Queue: 2 jobs
Job 1
Amino acid sequence: MKVKELLVSAGSLLLAGLILVAAGNALAPAAAANAAAEQQEMMETLLPGSTVFTQEEDTGADANITAVWKGEGGWVIETTVDGYAGSIRQWTGVDSNGHVTGLVVRDMQETIGLGQNALTDIDFLVQFVGTSGEAEIGDGVDAMTGATVTSRAIARGVSSACAYVTGADVSTSATEWGG
Amino acid sequence: MKKVIRSPLCTGSICLSATLLAAGLAAQIAVTVVPNIILPALDIPTLAALSLFALVLEVVLFGEDHRFWATSLIVGIVAFGVLSLCAGGVTTVLDALRVGILGGTVFLICEVLLHSILDRLSSGPVGKYRRSMAVVSALLLWLAAQILMSIGI
């Protein structure tokens, strides 16, 4: 192996790395601004009537809850629960009375065509809106076809979000794996 | 210089670097433009897709030339580890090391399998269509890699 070959190889890697770092730094301000705008818009959708959201410190009482924002009329609660293939991170809007006002999945790696339908399946997600307390698949909420584990995971996240607002016991069956 | 660039070590690292650079830039732009986009996880199928793309690129641009397997492993580990960190795909050095080792291993396995298929095909009637066969073989290997999707590493 010649020194020149090693230098060319290392140089190509170094050049690619430098371009990526430079691009990342150049795009960072725009990315942060867009992310903040998108977050604000999403939270206003999840919790209608609220425009100012303040991030609160999580009490740590429920391991499913990873972030909490307080709005004028309630809370937007981020939960991260285990799905079929990795964690599912979702935001749930809950009003001051403990009723779900909106729900959106923010990140997941579920099976394409099955569990990932939770990103766009309005018929499934809308079932949670207006509910309060413990959400359970099969009890007023139908699972997505072929994605029972994902459906239960999302229901578990909703239950945790409601329990945060109402102060309900989070160690109920709805917060265990499988719902 | 041209001879140096066409050596198996250089063609491998150039094509892998170019592939990861393009993927990294695409991911950075996507996250900037669409902040709530869900990008594929850096799991085995994704690493296999990137590796196979780089290997096909190498066959198409430089032809097929075998190199030491250890060289491929080292190039893969360094490229995936360093460039995933530079692109922001991972945030810690430990994660970069994990992606590097996994990516290097996947790159090596993909190379061995792809070149084995191409060697077999070269003696048959489709042997003259090496570039097309590289694309088709890589696509089939990537589909096969989907069965490893749910393995969490």
Note: Chain B has one domain: 2-148.
Job 2
Amino acid sequence: MSDQSLVENHNAPKKLVVGWFSFTCCEGCLILLTELLNENLDNWKKLIEFRHLKALKTKNQIEGLDVAFVEGAISSPDQEAELLKIRANAKHLVAVGSCACTGRPSATRNDLLNAELNYKVLWYFKQFKYNDKVKKIADLVKVDAQVPGCPMIASEFIKAVESYLKLYKLI
Amino acid sequence: MHSGDITIENISKIEGSAGLKVTIQDGQVTDLKFIIQDYRRFYTQVVKSKPIAGVPAFLSRICGTCSVSHLFASLEAIEKSQDIKISEQTRILRRLAYDALMIRDHALHLYFFMLPDVLGIDSILDIPDDPNDFGHTLLHDSFDIKKLGTDISNTIIGAAIHAPFPTIGGFVKNPDPSKFAEFIDRLEKIRPQVIRGIKLFYDWKAELFRNSDYLCLRNNDHFDFLEGEVINSDGKRVAEEDFYKFLKAVVIPYSQAEGYVFSDTHEDYLVGSLARLNLNLDLLHPRTKADISQYLNFFPSNNVYDNNLAQAVEILQAVDDAIDILKNVKINPEEKPVTKPVKAGIGVGVVEAPRGILYHMAEVDDKGMIKDYDVIVPTSQNQINIENDLKKFFQENLDKEEATLKLEAEKIIRTYDPCMSCATNFLKLEIIRK
């Protein structure tokens, strides 16, 4: 975690304010997060405010995030705009899982040859305003840290969470 | 009386992204759209011309939560295309892994997504840190249940999400049986917690009745998520290979997924736990039946909320089946996957994913490359049924406030346990020509 300067002008919050966002992917990283909650929720609730976590709550907010965890790759202009909004609202952004970090496997459609982009695929592209190519997160915004793996490597994710808790002097 | 449009941009506490738009004019629901918003990845297109060996692991990436379902359906489709007969050890280990999937996946839905609706709160994050609080007890039940499902998955197939051990013809690595005794012990320990969850959903007074047709796999010998024929409420039986012909795909222009109706009647139908309990109640494990007989009288049920009770029952079914397997299975650590020279062929794999019938079809050429691939997922099959349920709900409750209508509509959708990641990967493309 390299962005210590961002913290120096910031009063350490009582809790780390976190958001989780899912773009085009299988959401396996999110499912793994729900598994990690089996053993960590009791402790994390004392240290972390989950301000945006659509899988677990209805009332979600994007504003004022310390850390945005982003899974999935970017498929459309709408998703690009959403990602830019997340970046603007988060002090730190972590790309989580293979699709966010590398684009793949969600971006494997980029490998389709023109001949394979038949009218059937193109119908979806046009109907739902797809980008021609699927992009990884770092193609569009600054990424402060990455948690690789498909799904994300659990121990790396916990390390990332703990590093931000330390950065904000919460542990 | 409500009039005008009701829109829910993002339905929460489900897998993936979906919205709802309802138009009400002059006291009538004139339009209702359940809109699946996840973007397609075109994986069934991507696998064409690829060697079969890597296809099941790749297609498990269709969905994080039911990845094991996609993996096993794909393995079955490809094995059948190659006339590969798996060993009894492989068959029983897949069944055990599948029990573990059901335990983990159903518990995620019931406790993390549905429990707040039962408790009348927004989120499990709002449950107090008080061991005397009932919600706290249930939440910690869920941790024990989910973790055990995951731990069994880790041992048998290498991971709960995108499992590395299963391969075409068997397992690249056989499980270490030294942990089996511990698993049996933990499964016995969670049984009372699982039964507490069954009682919770039995007692929950939530109702939406609509006559539906149901569709699921049935194995006449035992309650089975992996093997059997497809049956419907009328007792019609369809072999796995003929399942596709049985259905008619319907393009829904505002949704990134297709819907399905019966090809002959064009009527909607429901797949998932409720369908399985309605049609396979007699096949439940004897111990499951004996210990929760007082909670089974709702089945067969046309109350869509009983899908939750059915899932809770299936957790116990999976627990009891897993205990039997762990007590009796003998692992030959030397067993290797069955292999054959590649050949041209077509194979179909139909399994019960946690959310219902999942169909994979693989057509392989004589070089062992995928020539064509098709997938039909449960949420696509349920999409039209969900819309028809919601239409009925809105029509009958237009006197309620908009906030109440929205909350209740979200509950109905959540009850189906829909999975948008699954619903948007496939191309029933011949339909688009219409």
Note: The longest strand of chain B covers residues 28-36.
